[in-house]
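In the design runs reported in the main text, the only information available to the sequence generator was the tokenized backbone. The following block is the verbatim input for one such run; it is reproduced so that readers can re-run the procedure and compare outputs position by position.
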């Protein structure tokens, strides 16, 4: 085994790196709260044009994954329903497929920016007081996990 090889890294080395870098960027004594996002397509109906949505769920990385991934524990909460526009509008001849794709990406980006803006505002980066499970009040700094 070569020192420094990928095989020597623990399975969750990336989360260690995220936590170490994140912890050095927040005020001393604060707790890092990694925000996790998940989404999956949901089929709504066959009767009105195969409508679909993408629910956006959020959880925090401080919950053990064995607990967080059990559906009965309700560790993931829905925070938004992202609309899915039609793939191609052929009815508008001057509206190219490339322009449609760019518009869809731009709209999705703006929606996600609006939804996630509380995670990046100045107040949350200085710490938000939250009650912990042991009823202590802690200064918590949420960071979007990558």
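Verbatim output:
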């Amino acid at each position: 085994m070569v020192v420094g090889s990928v095989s020597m890294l623990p399975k969750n080395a990336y989360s260690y790196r995220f936590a170490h870098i994140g912890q050095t960027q927040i005020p001393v004594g604060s707790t890092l709260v990694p925000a996790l996002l998940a989404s999956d397509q949901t089929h709504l109906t066959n009767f009105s044009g195969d409508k679909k949505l993408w629910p956006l769920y959020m959880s925090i990385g401080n919950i053990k994954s064995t607990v967080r991934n059990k559906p009965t524990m309700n560790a993931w909460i829905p925070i938004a329903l992202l609309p899915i526009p039609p793939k191609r509008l052929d009815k508008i001849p001057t509206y190219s497929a490339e322009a449609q794709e760019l518009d869809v990406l731009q709209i999705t980006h703006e929606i996600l920016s609006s939804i996630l803006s509380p995670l990046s505002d100045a107040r949350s980066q200085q710490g938000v007081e939250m009650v912990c499970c042991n009823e202590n009040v802690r200064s918590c700094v949420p960071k979007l996990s990558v």
